[in-house]
Amino acid sequence: MEKIAVLVDSGSDLDLEKAKEFGIYMMPFYVNLDGKFYREQVDLKADEFYNWIKKHEKLPKTSIPSPGELIEKLDEIKNDGFEKLIIITISKNFTGFYNLCSQIEYDNLEIEVIDSKSVALTTGLLAIYAKDLIKKGYEFKEIVDRLEDKKKESKIFFTIDSFKYLVAGGRVPKAFGKVGELLNIKPIIVCSPEDGKYHIEKTCRGEKKVLKEMEKIASEYLGKFDKYYMIISNGGYKKGSEILEEKLKVFKEKSTLFLTSQIAPSLGANTGPGLFGFGFLPLD
């Protein structure tokens, strides 16, 4: 059997404990809080990050690891006895990590880099799926091909409490954000597997309606699958994800694997606190 490892970035929404549980390597991104750099998931937990934003009312900057740090991680993987490596990154539209991994020169491992065309929730599910294929004895090339196909089927839906930080980060026009705040509009945002960018799928008036719409979306998609991985996450808004989990209880109980997580700072740095949502990955 081929000795194949899987590596994700910390934007995948797998915390260190879950990554270790599934045997997945992780490269942490950096978060700059007032000039001091922290490694997300290592030096900086999600709760601490979102509390910092609430206190300072501004969005911090994030950055990727250096080429030298990536080489050190590749050396670690090689020294652990692996011969081949699959790197799964969040969408290259939100980070330079995909480009770094694609351009790095390293001869001691056969490496394939996959742009998940997604963020947070479903990127971690792809990595877990890859590990399952490895355990089942699939060959390296076939695993990569299956991941490239499977990522097109993954979906992520999330909402935010306020347009404030999207406007501050230039993600939403000021006029749109102002109207959204006045009318209590809650967008349902997706990350398209076609272009790997954010898109507003639908808008609702108030949290109750957005929760009802998410329940409808889950029924529309998950109702037609017999097997799937599912994840519910939040960014500084645990109550929202708990209510959503209860709303989607029937789909949670039907899932092959169900996870909860906190949305990584690398996504929260674009949206601010107050977001929650769900994602899924259909299985064969």
Automatic annotation (TrEMBL):
Gene3D superfamilies named in the record: 3.30.1180.10, 3.40.50.10170
GO molecular function annotation: lipid binding
Pfam family of the protein (one): DegV
InterPro entries: DegV, DegV_C, DegV_domain_contain
Keywords per UniProt: Lipid-binding
SUPFAM superfamilies reported in the protein's UniProt record: DAK1/DegV-like
Name of this protein: DegV family protein
